[in-house]
Model the fold of this input.
Amino acid sequence: MPGRFFTTLVTALLLSAAFAGDAAAQRARKRKPRVLLIGDSVCTYYTPFVKRALSRKAEVKRSGHAAHTRYGLEHLDKWLGKKPWDVIHFNWGLHDLKNRATKVPIDEYEKNLARLVRRLKATKAKLVFTTTTPVGPEAARRNSDVIRYNEVAVRVMKKEGVPVNDVYAILFPQRRKLQLGDGVHFTEKGNRIIGEAVAAKVLEALKPEE
Done:
């Protein structure tokens, strides 16, 4: 009799463990992929459009203001946190090339960006870099610098095997229609265009590898 009771108890415990394991697996399958957007104030304005486009597909979060690459190196670990990310879509550049004392020289920008990419790759998330958006003559920046810094960034991404979302190329032909008077930020339509481009790249990154 005690033997039968012991056998029944063990069986019940095994079934309970199996059920718990199945339940955990189901929760894992139902978990939405986690997406982190890293960027400057331009990112602030297009993030709602990304969230809207991916509302049924992913959980989208935004880092704090990414500022320049020096700031990113100091704060990246805080933004990444402890939980895993499935996709990280990121940019630095607009504040690195700003015409002020905090401007990061292009050679340092390249080195900093490479360091940031290596740290991001350590998360095992899929990465997508987006080019820095164009600026107008009203901005405390020169668009010729945007082009130069983008060229360096693309070179780093090619070396590191990171896909590039060329938002600059999308926006530049229609910049005057889509950009606000500060020469940096964009209208609602412009932010929607950026957000949709970002969402499309994120969805592409979320596809299972064949």
Q: What stands out?
A: Strands lie at 34-38, 59-62, 87-90, 126-130, 164-165.
